Amino acid sequence: MGAATAPTDGASPGPHAALEAQIDQWRGYVRRREAISASDVDEMEDHLRERVEDLRATGLDDDEAFLVAVKRMGTLDDLSREFAQEHSERLWKQLVLVGEQPGRTRSWRELAVVLGLAVAAGVAVKVATAVLDEMTVALNVGLLVLPFLTAYLAWKRQVTARIVGALAVPFVVLGVVLNVYPFEPTGSTLVLAALAAPVTLWAVVGLAYVGGRWRSDARRMDFARFTGELAVYYTLLALGGGVLLGLTAGVFSLADVDLEPYLEDWILPLCVPAALIVAAWLVEAKQNVVENIAPVLTRVFTPLTLVMLLAVFVVLATAGNLAAVDRELLILMDAILVLVLCLLLYSVSARDPLAPRSFFDGLQVVLVVAALAVDAVALTAMLTRIAEFGVSPNKAAALGLNLLLLVHLVWSAVLATAFLRGRRPFADLVAWQTRFLPVYAAWAAIVAVVFPPVFGFV
């Protein structure tokens, strides 16, 4: 039995948006508990949804059905009772009993699996760097590392054999296509394929993370949250590892031992990919820690990013002839817009959908509008350059990405504004974010697979 049986799973939240938001918050709370696996959370959600449906069939409205369902779940499950106890401002607390917090157990088996996959990822990259040239390794880096992360998540979710097959197909197909294409060495399509392939494969990682339930808005938002938290943990591991290696190299240098050859040939090829698997495990095991960091990070970086966008807009608006705008500047603008999109997504995922509207919600609308202004200028500059210099793989890929960003940001601004004015629930903004994400993966697949033959592999 799975959450896919839920009537609202993957469908528009529509008139039940508030109910979906409450279930999402309940699920978000439960999934942060270290002792509960994702499959257990799915099963608990199924029970909750079934109870809600049964209660709605008796004539209760969504709020009443959810409250009573949580109460009845609370009589069966300690976490539901704890959930209701912690959310003391909710009516749920008044309806459920308070029990003792269950103890936590550490899964040594999971740790062994994680370490084994981390070592395997490191060895795969090390072997590739030893037998392949640098550009071929760059082209295949996603294929060398992400299968191990996908395997960990698939093992963690206990997915079926059919889903395992579905996960393997994209890796095989992309691996064959990328390595049989007659790319021009250092050509644009080779570089684009190397950049787009990991984005495409990240969608496969997401499919493993959601246990194959890719139609569910809640699962896709869980994966978006996981991605943001993974970036935080990976950065922390990289910073800590850098400090440790720097101190070690300093001590070795005093003894006239040069650590640099070992660093380039062994330590980095083994540790950088392995750290990704370890970071994913930390996110899964320590979600409650990052949950406290996420809202802080979004509140710190949202105003800073807004200032950066305004500065970029002023620079572009005063640049004069848009056809003469430096290509590197346009690339940086795209990177900034993608960063803004990630920040927006992370902010939406970290927000309590039932919390009242606040100043920060208004600030996010301003941020999206500023990003739209920058994107409009960037699109104008790209179209001007294409009209003057013709189409190239880089220009076509950048133009497509900016058009996707434009659509995504415009509708995000509309929904966020409607939420601020009390005309749309926050769940609509959440659903839009998660439903548009596969479009980016599809575009990345087109860039990686279709662009090379279309542009003659140059």
TrEMBL record:
<dbReference type="InterPro" id="IPR047928">
    <property type="entry name" value="Perm_prefix_1"/>
</dbReference>
<feature type="transmembrane region" description="Helical">
    <location>
        <begin position="304"/>
        <end position="323"/>
    </location>
</feature>
<keyword id="KW-1133">Transmembrane helix</keyword>
<feature type="transmembrane region" description="Helical">
    <location>
        <begin position="329"/>
        <end position="348"/>
    </location>
</feature>
<keyword id="KW-0472">Membrane</keyword>
<feature type="transmembrane region" description="Helical">
    <location>
        <begin position="162"/>
        <end position="183"/>
    </location>
</feature>
<feature type="transmembrane region" description="Helical">
    <location>
        <begin position="189"/>
        <end position="210"/>
    </location>
</feature>
<feature type="transmembrane region" description="Helical">
    <location>
        <begin position="266"/>
        <end position="283"/>
    </location>
</feature>
<feature type="transmembrane region" description="Helical">
    <location>
        <begin position="137"/>
        <end position="155"/>
    </location>
</feature>
<keyword id="KW-0812">Transmembrane</keyword>
<feature type="transmembrane region" description="Helical">
    <location>
        <begin position="360"/>
        <end position="384"/>
    </location>
</feature>
<feature type="transmembrane region" description="Helical">
    <location>
        <begin position="111"/>
        <end position="131"/>
    </location>
</feature>
<protein>
    <recommendedName>
        <fullName>DUF4153 domain-containing protein</fullName>
    </recommendedName>
</protein>
<feature type="transmembrane region" description="Helical">
    <location>
        <begin position="437"/>
        <end position="455"/>
    </location>
</feature>
<feature type="transmembrane region" description="Helical">
    <location>
        <begin position="396"/>
        <end position="416"/>
    </location>
</feature>
<feature type="transmembrane region" description="Helical">
    <location>
        <begin position="231"/>
        <end position="254"/>
    </location>
</feature>
